[in-house]
């Protein structure tokens, strides 16, 4: 099995201001962070520059979304080139809030993935089933279909992290159990093996997101196919350091 570097992303969502994010950044900059963990903080787009100028260089910066073309009359949108211009290296795409609050389709997410990768951004590509889909027993079907559209738009998997985020676990305090997370991650890896390649299946980081906290991160991190986390609420608190160090 290829060695997959543990990956922890903090998704600040639409939270904070320069004061509170500045405080968080000071906490992260001065903390002892496991050097075997890749750490990325996803700032609101208006604070990308602020985050990049203030965060220690060992922490990467991500945008939380971007558009599918380089420039033009798309009021309110930002391009991968702009994200790179602010010194950020990553973008989160397909987050469940983009899918379900803003109605982004699989097709649009796929186009964004392709354009971000062409412009040399790393992509944290999010997938995950809703509660009713899990209850109807269609979790696999849903996450495979979402992964398929992403896969059709990826040429270089070296720049992609797949984030499994069950929608029912996001911001609800209802974390997937380590067994539930492992089960889906294992199946996603098998899907990659069958539909992409052995090499990609062995090397792509599949991270878990949904109510990850300092208290539950270690047990989740001990699962063989859980290669890190995408963290919302807890990424705004000092316990984010404990999550970064979950495998230390
Ligand atoms: P949460 O959010 O950790 O607050 O559940 C996770 C996410 O949306 O990435």
Please provide a written account of the structure.
With 248 residues, the protein is α/β, with parallel strands linked by helices. The protein has one domain (6-244): TIM Barrel (Alpha-Beta Barrel), CATH 3.20.20.70. Helices cover 39% and strands 16% of the residues. It contains eleven helices and eight strands. The chain has helices at 18-30, 48-54, 80-85, 96-100, 106-118, 131-135, 139-152, 178-195, 198-203, 217-221, 240-244; strands at 6-11, 37-42, 59-63, 90-93, 122-127, 160-164, 206-209, 228-231. Strands 1-2-3-4-5-6-7-8 form an eight-stranded parallel beta barrel, surrounded by four helices. Strand 2 (37-42), helix 2 (48-54) and strand 3 form a beta-alpha-beta unit. Helix 5 packs parallel to helix 7 and helix 7 (139-152) packs across helix 8 (178-195). The longest helix has 18 residues, at 178-195. It is globular. It starts with 5 loop residues before the first strand and ends with a helix. The mean pLDDT is 97.
Strand fraction? 15-25%
As residue ranges, the low-confidence spans are none
User: Which fold name fills CATH's third level, the topology?
Assistant: TIM Barrel
* Order of strands in the sheet with most strands: 1-2-3-4-5-6-7-8
Q: Measured on Cα atoms, how large is the radius of gyration?
A: 17 Å
The description of the largest β-sheet is: 8 strands, parallel, barrel
Number of strands: 8
Q: Topology as H/E string?
A: EHEHEHEHHEHHEHHEHEH
Per CATH, the architecture is Alpha-Beta Barrel
Quote the distance from N terminus to C terminus: 20 Å
Shape: globular
